[in-house]
Design a protein that fits this description.
This protein has a domain of about 100 residues: Immunoglobulins (Immunoglobulin-like, Sandwich). It has 2 helices and 11 strands, in the order H-H-E-E-E-E-E-E-E-E-E-E-E. The strands form 3 sheets. Strands 4, 5, 6, 8 and 11 form a 5-stranded mixed beta sheet that branches. Strand 2 and strand 3 form a beta hairpin.
Amino acid sequence: MARSLALFAIGLVFGGGAGFVLAAANGVTFDGHDHSDPTHHGGAHAEAVAHDHSTTVNLPAGPDAPGLEIALTQDPMAGWNLHVMPQNFRFSPENASAADKDGEGHAHVYVNGEKLARLYGNWMHIPDLPKGEVEVSVSLNANSHSPLTVDDVPVSAAITVQVD
């Protein structure tokens, strides 16, 4: 009996590890959001099309146009603190993957061009950055996840830091 339990436990460990490796190798993320799976968005064709990162939501320039500034400071204990300061834009996590409304949505955070996270507020702690010259950038995105542009210019900001 004890041997059976031991073999069962070993099988669970190796099976779980193999499953994790297979999922990661196939681009599955563990944030509960698989961009490649239209059924994640309710399975409706319209919703799958609405979640298209290649299409932009273009807004006209003017005093009500969204803008973005960011600041990155080293955390006194560990990592980095990113401060995202949008203008004429409201973070709306309650409307993610819903219909677009001018001036609301979320942000995407990138480190050296690779997406790190989706952001629904003004602050984010980044536990670790790679060594050397590092670019942290943020883009504003509509509820449909499409990048926001103003007169066809992306609403984004970037900052470069030297990490020792």
